[in-house]
Amino acid sequence: MALSSLTAPLFALFMSLGGFNWSYGSQTDTKGKAMVELTADENLSGVKVTIKGSDGTEVSKSINIKAGKSTKVTWTQKGRQVSYEIKIEANDAFTNGEFEVVRPVAGGTRGSLALQSDREEIVDDQKIRYKTPFTLSSHELQVFNTDGEMIVDDTVTDEIVEAGETFEMSWQTADEVFMIKVTGSDDTGYSATDTRVPWSVHIPHTEVNFDSGKYNIKGDEEWKVAEAFAVLVHELDNLERANKALDDLDPDNATSADDIKVQLYIVGYTDTVGNAADNKKLSENRARSIAQYFVDNGAWCEIHYAGMGEKGLAVDTGDSVDEVRNRRALYILSPQKPAGGGQVPGGGSWKKLADARPRMMNNLPPLPESYTKYKEEQRQAREAKFGGGGYSGDGDDDGDLGDGGDDDGALGGSGSSGGDGGSGSSGASGSSSDGGPPSVGGEPGGTKQGCAVEDPATGTGLGLLASLFGLLGLRRRRRAS
Fold this sequence. Notes:
Elements: E1 3-6, H1 12-16, E2 20-25, E3 33-40, E4 44-53, E5 58-65, E6 71-76, E7 81-90, E8 93-102, E9 114-115, H2 119-125, E10 127-131, E11 138-145, E12 150-156, E13 166-170, E14 177-185, E15 191-199, H3 222-249, E16 263-269, H4 276-296, E17 302-309, E18 329-334, E19 351-354, H5 369-386, E20 410-417, E21 420-423, E22 462-464, E23 476-478
Parallel strand pairs: 12-23, 16-17, 20-22
Antiparallel strand pairs: 1-2, 2-3, 3-6, 4-5, 4-7, 7-8, 9-10, 10-13, 11-12, 11-14, 14-15, 15-20, 16-18, 17-19, 20-21
Keywords: Membrane
Domain OmpA-like: 197-337
Region (Disordered): 374-459
């Protein structure tokens, strides 16, 4: 408890007693104990101390003071910030004064902030909610765009959040959101930070037509995979630039974690014609052929593949039905292995084809015109919906790493609290031809969907991406009056 020394205005008789002083603690301890300390140059007995607070507190004590030694008067403060009047009487002399004491906000159990929001609330509504295990005196929201710029920095200091309660922070921006960081703090200097990455990448592709029972990519079909590959490497390039921008803002890397890394997962599917076991093997081989094409042409991320065969049909049909929309592939770009379920295989089904490797490609292939047009349409849609970027308190977000994407996004998350960490899970999802990205070459595909980072099984993935940044940016703060 810090002491603020204050010499009371003393009457002459007090001074004749050899000198008398009193001081107070400007801040209580974590349990709310306030304190006044009295000292004198000579022994004093029967000193009456009366203290009245603006929170209704009344303290009246009679004490003895030994020369050269301090005597403390303590009480429990009810309010957070209380003004007091003090009166001290010794024999026929007295003095009085005023002071103010703050009760620090603290309590509960130190630990990580617990995310309460699902993906839709964060991405679609631009709101994020947490439950805190310890009492907060302030909480801060920082939002970063895909250029690594902090576009929102809002600190709330006029609201106390008790341990076990939830709090919500919101924003509104037309920028593509790359990272959201929320920090809660108490008055003892303890804080907990949680970081989320609402990042989605959509790579539209035209489905490759394989010969019946075959899995090799024919020459006249290669252009379809080549266009999807072009979009993939451009998005990997965008990720590198976003990571670099954040690293440049924290050159000493004192508070940031490793760069965000992603893996590509390719799933193959068949229709219901033929034997189910044979179809599963066929779909796996087709997915591997596409994956191998990406590796051979220079993709530098880690690549996995799997086959679902007749499971996870895009169009529900009976057995032995020739349905072109079910002969398809799904590309999932994700910071971790996607959760199994629905149209995505379980964790044990994935086979690694290639590890991540150094980038050797300097000149990227041109993006398909249809993809460039799609991205521009998405940018215009965000502008129409949100207007300018910045903090507004409410809104929507369809942040994706490359300037495209609708409202499908994975949320990579991590928590740190005074050295403690927390985490979530992450996945990926495709979108349908009704609402998803267009086919690249104008030819219809099964899902019109390439790489994404939302969980297709649940749509509510929360991934493990540790990342703490001490960055500067545009600021808007609310302070206690």
